[in-house]
Amino acid sequence: DFLNALQEIVPAFGASTDDLERCRLNGMVDCGNRHKHIYERAMLLVEQVKVSRGSPLVTCLLEGPSGSGKTALAATVGIDSDFPYVKIVSAETMIGLHESTKCAQIVKVFEDAYKSPLSIIILDDIERLLEYIAIGPRFSNLISQTLLVLLKRLPPKGKKLLVIGTTSEVSFLDSIGVCDAFSVAYNVPKLKKDDAEQVLRQLNVFAEDDIQAAAEALDEMPIKKLYMLIAMASRGVGGGASDEAIYSERQKIMISHFYDCLQDVVGY
Amino acid sequence: DFLNALQEIVPAFGASTDDLERCRLNGMVDCGNRHKHIYERAMLLVEQVKVSRGSPLVTCLLEGPSGSGKTALAATVGIDSDFPYVKIVSAETMIGLHESTKCAQIVKVFEDAYKSPLSIIILDDIERLLEYIAIGPRFSNLISQTLLVLLKRLPPKGKKLLVIGTTSEVSFLDSIGVCDAFSVAYNVPKLKKDDAEQVLRQLNVFAEDDIQAAAEALDEMPIKKLYMLIAMASRGVGGGASDEAIYSERQKIMISHFYDCLQDVVGY
Amino acid sequence: DFLNALQEIVPAFGASTDDLERCRLNGMVDCGNRHKHIYERAMLLVEQVKVSRGSPLVTCLLEGPSGSGKTALAATVGIDSDFPYVKIVSAETMIGLHESTKCAQIVKVFEDAYKSPLSIIILDDIERLLEYIAIGPRFSNLISQTLLVLLKRLPPKGKKLLVIGTTSEVSFLDSIGVCDAFSVAYNVPKLKKDDAEQVLRQLNVFAEDDIQAAAEALDEMPIKKLYMLIAMASRGVGGGASDEAIYSERQKIMISHFYDCLQDVVGY
Amino acid sequence: DFLNALQEIVPAFGASTDDLERCRLNGMVDCGNRHKHIYERAMLLVEQVKVSRGSPLVTCLLEGPSGSGKTALAATVGIDSDFPYVKIVSAETMIGLHESTKCAQIVKVFEDAYKSPLSIIILDDIERLLEYIAIGPRFSNLISQTLLVLLKRLPPKGKKLLVIGTTSEVSFLDSIGVCDAFSVAYNVPKLKKDDAEQVLRQLNVFAEDDIQAAAEALDEMPIKKLYMLIAMASRGVGGGASDEAIYSERQKIMISHFYDCLQDVVGY
Amino acid sequence: DFLNALQEIVPAFGASTDDLERCRLNGMVDCGNRHKHIYERAMLLVEQVKVSRGSPLVTCLLEGPSGSGKTALAATVGIDSDFPYVKIVSAETMIGLHESTKCAQIVKVFEDAYKSPLSIIILDDIERLLEYIAIGPRFSNLISQTLLVLLKRLPPKGKKLLVIGTTSEVSFLDSIGVCDAFSVAYNVPKLKKDDAEQVLRQLNVFAEDDIQAAAEALDEMPIKKLYMLIAMASRGVGGGASDEAIYSERQKIMISHFYDCLQDVVGY
Amino acid sequence: DFLNALQEIVPAFGASTDDLERCRLNGMVDCGNRHKHIYERAMLLVEQVKVSRGSPLVTCLLEGPSGSGKTALAATVGIDSDFPYVKIVSAETMIGLHESTKCAQIVKVFEDAYKSPLSIIILDDIERLLEYIAIGPRFSNLISQTLLVLLKRLPPKGKKLLVIGTTSEVSFLDSIGVCDAFSVAYNVPKLKKDDAEQVLRQLNVFAEDDIQAAAEALDEMPIKKLYMLIAMASRGVGGGASDEAIYSERQKIMISHFYDCLQDVVGY
Ligand SMILES: Nc1ncnc2c1ncn2[C@@H]1O[C@H](COP(=O)(O)OP(=O)(O)OP(=O)(O)O)[C@@H](O)[C@H]1O
Ligand SMILES: Nc1ncnc2c1ncn2[C@@H]1O[C@H](COP(=O)(O)OP(=O)(O)OP(=O)(O)O)[C@@H](O)[C@H]1O
Ligand SMILES: Nc1ncnc2c1ncn2[C@@H]1O[C@H](COP(=O)(O)OP(=O)(O)OP(=O)(O)O)[C@@H](O)[C@H]1O
Ligand SMILES: Nc1ncnc2c1ncn2[C@@H]1O[C@H](COP(=O)(O)OP(=O)(O)OP(=O)(O)O)[C@@H](O)[C@H]1O
Ligand SMILES: Nc1ncnc2c1ncn2[C@@H]1O[C@H](COP(=O)(O)OP(=O)(O)OP(=O)(O)O)[C@@H](O)[C@H]1O
Ligand SMILES: Nc1ncnc2c1ncn2[C@@H]1O[C@H](COP(=O)(O)OP(=O)(O)OP(=O)(O)O)[C@@H](O)[C@H]1O
Ligand SMILES: [Mg+2]
Ligand SMILES: [Mg+2]
Ligand SMILES: [Mg+2]
Ligand SMILES: [Mg+2]
Ligand SMILES: [Mg+2]
Ligand SMILES: [Mg+2]
Prior knowledge:
CATH topology of the largest domain in chain A: Rossmann fold
Oligomer: homohexamer
CATH class of the largest domain in chain A: Alpha Beta
CATH superfamily of the largest domain in chain A: P-loop containing nucleotide triphosphate hydrolases
Largest interface: A-B, 39 and 32 residues
CATH architecture of the largest domain in chain A: 3-Layer(aba) Sandwich
Mean pLDDT of chain A: 90
Bound molecules: adenosine-5'-triphosphate, magnesium ion
Number of strands of chain A: 5
Strand order of the largest sheet of chain A: 2-3-4-1-5
Largest sheet of chain A: 5 strands, parallel
């Protein structure tokens, strides 16, 4: 299944997937059915691209709230495909560049992909690639146009390409026609109470008696913020408890301290 | 008739129509009466341009929802005319260029056309040529002005030109006066249930019993998305069924899997 | 009278009026009283400029719906005046130029005119010279300012200048004060049913019995679109009927086919 | 009185006032009390600047509808003052220049004025200097700021300066604070029926019986348009009547033809 | 007291305060209590800066209607402080400069001030420094940011700085946060009837019987416009009465003429 | 506790923390519980960054009204951490620079931080770094995008980074998604009456009988303005009382004079 697949395949990868691995710093735990479903459908698209004759270009959008696990999921699909060319396009490597330079770099990634028989390109945080800001709104039309064309341009004969985009601003992307430019789209959700409980059990950082209460408080929490919160709550319990101490079960998080930290987290 | 015409003429073309051929990657099937009607009227315009003395410039707009078959139709008219100069102007070959460079390239195509006694220019996805984005809206006024002038400028004495434009943003084009700049316009629609059924029969990818149900679900589907959907639904039926397997009738698409895929498709 | 005047004078002109002649590709037929009236008043202005001492600069705007015959009318006045300097300023020869370059070219035409004792400058499609687009609206303020000044600047002592502008966006021009900058203005209308009938009779392309019905359908049609429509309707009547065949009365347009074509024409 | 003053002084001027003279191409007739009053007050300001110690800078705005005689009035004050430096700043000599170049030229005129003990600067059609256009509105902030500062900056010790501005867009100037930057302001009106009658009598172009009727029709007409209208109406009366013929009383304007022409004039 | 203070100190200054002196061309008369109060408080800030250890930077805004005497007041404080560095920053010396050049000049003044143990910088007419125009509104964000930072940046250790800003657009400054950037703010008002009377008595330009009536008419008049008005009213009384004649009491202003002039003044 | 911690650690720092020390010119007094709480939580984050494995990047926003003590607080945390790299990024050192230069400088600070195992970066007055102005609003999208990416980009393996931002425009930051980019956020408030009383006692500038009344008047006053006010009120009490005199208890502030000064302070 989903998680097993991940854990089996990871060791098979070498240095070149470092970029992808950094996208899932906290590893991959079982986050509930929706996450699993999306992973499976995405892997089917990987199959389709590989085998189908009539669809040399497939494009798939992962959208959902900030921190819900979109990038980690896309990276995992990239790692788990056995495609020779897997590349992540991220604003992190293009800070401060002029929009035309960014444009050129993005085009370059596509041109490189066109040279490989099977390729995956991850367009991570598309709103950030587009320099989107809600006020105005402002964004780069140059880069928008570039993506709109690239998302529809067929690779040369005999080449196949899967593009996976991620975004937490789906309604913006929709309003500029970028959603329409994707063939399929999946919503990656926050954790429900039950998903949170499952995750907490896997992390094993609360005393058994506290898990239920903690999970209740974590309803509608994105997986990424959950990790930050756990890290915060691990501090201040009798001084210098380290992550290791917590995760290795030698010490558990005090639920009251956990509640305190919860209040500091932005958006809660 | 329409489809026959296509199939007869295609072999007569060599490498130079490669660009046009790539525009109809999935070939041309019978999509219903409206598509056929538009093809016939467009071919009459080809005739008019060739013969008439008083109208050396005829301009025709194909507008309709995304994926309804506009580009394939325009390309087919270009291929089926026996004009010595047929050229497609597309944003795909002008990614990231400055608007003035795009402008110059477009003008160049017209200047080249003016040298041929009979020419067809396809302005594909005019909204993309104009760098249109709905928010704002934003678009290149420079290119808009260029098209507005080129669509009305007469070719030199003795030269004849047919311009075919395509767009899925007809109301935008209308609001900037580009529709008015065309002599005639045709709406290329999505498939109706009956059209879809006809197409499915031609493709022969469903068991006879499923065709009606599938066609029902495909009401108001653009022909292009139909092809993508068939390709997706062909995956996941007992592992690695390839397109060939499906199209060659060795395997049929499972209708339940088809319904699942339908939900992932953007806009449905 | 008006049409006679045209036909008499035309032969008197040589190559240098080629540009003006191209503006009335389909010749000049009698379009009804309003067109005639405007022609006569414009010719009076020609007289005024020539003779009057106190008004060395007269400016006249021809405004009306797209295709109503403004440019052809202005060109005709230019041709029929016996002024040594008659020049048309059109966006067609300035495609893609920067607004300051356009500006310089326009100024150049005026400077040249100032050297001739009697000059006519036709500013054709002023909204296009101004790079006007309805959304925004956008337009070149640089060129607007230039025209606003040029339309009021007196020629040097002893020189006389008549400026004729044409536009189909009179309300825009009004909103930026360009209308006010003209001394006089005339509205060039579409054809009324009776005008259309008169034109059809002159063209002689319908069987006598069909003329009335056709004219009825052509109520509120601009003269320019009427010509396009006739050219379209001339196709598809028993294969390859050429314009000549139609105009030479050997063949007449089938009224039913005419109705079909009417529906394809943009804006009807 | 006012008109006499003008006529006496004019001959005293040489070539250098050519620019100013061109501003009153049709001479100066008696236009009614308001025009006279403004002239007198403006001449008092001329006096004040010359004599007063505490106000080395006086600024005066003439505002009113298009064609009401503002520029001619300002030019007349300039001519009638006996100031060694009188300069008109007009958009006519700055067509197509970049706003910073215009700025520099305007500053230059002020710097030159600062060198003369007594100077008058006429800022003609300020809205045009500012590249104002009603849509937006758009205008040059650079030039606006320049004028706002120049209108308040004191000349060097011992130098005196009178600035006269003209505009037909007073509400715009008011909204950007330029009106406030002037010390005094006068509204130059259109002609009232009685003023028009007086002017017509002076021009002597109508038969005595027609004057009253004509004046009635000219109520609220700006003096400048009145001249254009008279010139138009002088044509078409039995062929080639020249201005001279009309003004020299050999021929009179036919009142019916006059009414016709009135309808063609923009804004009536 | 206030006025005495002014008159005593002025002679103590040499050429270097010329710029400041030009700011109070009409000298300083007693304008009423509010003006006096502001002067005193500002002088206390001068003291505070000199003596206090904890507030090396004090910033003070003088705001009020156009012509109310803000600049003259600020200049007077600058003159009356015995600070070694007193500098006025005004748009008058930066006409037409690019905003970044203006920025650099402003920064330069601050850097220079930082070198002196005690400094005063007068930011005169801040809205003009910011190139503010009400329509839009438009203004230079670059200069705004510069002022916002400079108004809060501490001088180097051991240096003290008093910044005095003046503006007649306080609500604009407030809306961009510039008011908040000042420590203290004072409203400099127009003259009330009583203040006006007091001023008129000091100027001694009316006959005793007219003073009350004139003062009544001057209620809510800014002191600066009062001076302009007196200068205007001094003209036209029997020809060439000079300022001197009026101020030296040889001649008095006729009250009726004074009323006439009052109507011409902008804003009354 | 909080204040003690501060006072103990300060001496341990050398020249390199000068920048940070200048941020708390008036030292650190006990401002009430909320300030203390924030300090403690921020120090816990310092701990977390140092010890935790799973959160190499922690980001913390201090937001609150102008002058509430945010910068002093952030500087104090920076000083009290024993991190080898502590850097403040402030608009003060980037006046007048182009946004791309600012961008580069900010990136440089992060790149430097990435080289140290433990780093703190203080982004002071983020709205000022972003060149934010409320009207429009206007701001630098380039810098916004840069911060949005830097606030999420993980440091290289083995490096840890704490980012502390300060702002008094939290709702703006929220509207452009910058708040969301922080892990935790704290509101730094103005002084309540009780806090003010506590501060006044520590400063010891009022007579015992006046403290309560003064504190009452200082309810909702930011700590920074309180210091300015005290400095102002210390002037004008019998001439030249210096800060020292006041703070050294030789002289007390007169409560009536204190009330007067209170009215001059902007925003009260
Ligand atoms: N099943 C899972 N799916 C996704 N992420 C997981 C899963 N299990 C654990 N994680 C961890 O959760 C975090 C998800 O963060 P990620 O950056 O993918 O979220 P995101 O939705 O891309 O956030 P943002 O909206 O900020 O881009 C990663 O650190 C990842 O290691
Ligand atoms: N009769 C037909 N007419 C048009 N296209 C057809 C027809 N039969 C099959 N097709 C296939 O359907 C697809 C139509 O896609 P096409 O790109 O022309 O649509 P479009 O309307 O131009 O889309 P877009 O709005 O994205 O530009 C092509 O792959 C073409 O091969
Ligand atoms: N009496 C007439 N007046 C004007 N045009 C006529 C007349 N008779 C025939 N025509 C023909 O009608 C056409 C008028 O087109 P024209 O380009 O002048 O229209 P327009 O109003 O300038 O159009 P647009 O709004 O597109 O600029 C010309 O081809 C001209 O030859
Ligand atoms: N008493 C008068 N005052 C002003 N103009 C007069 C007078 N008598 C005759 N004229 C004539 O009337 C015309 C006035 O035109 P002028 O250009 O001054 O108007 P304007 O208000 O400046 O117009 P615009 O608004 O277009 O700038 C001139 O040709 C001038 O010779
Ligand atoms: N007590 C006074 N205070 C201020 N100005 C005075 C006083 N007495 C006389 N004046 C004179 O009044 C005038 C005030 O003009 P000033 O330029 O200072 O006004 P302002 O408010 O700065 O105007 P603006 O809003 O145009 O900048 C000066 O000429 C000054 O000499
Ligand atoms: N406990 C305290 N916390 C913060 N500041 C204190 C404290 N005690 C005294 N102060 C003093 O109060 C002042 C706080 O000013 P600071 O610049 O930190 O405010 P700020 O909120 O950053 O203001 P701004 O919004 O203008 O950036 C400093 O001078 C500091 O020395
Ligand atoms: Mg992500
Ligand atoms: Mg297409
Ligand atoms: Mg035309
Ligand atoms: Mg004028
Ligand atoms: Mg001032
Ligand atoms: Mg701060």
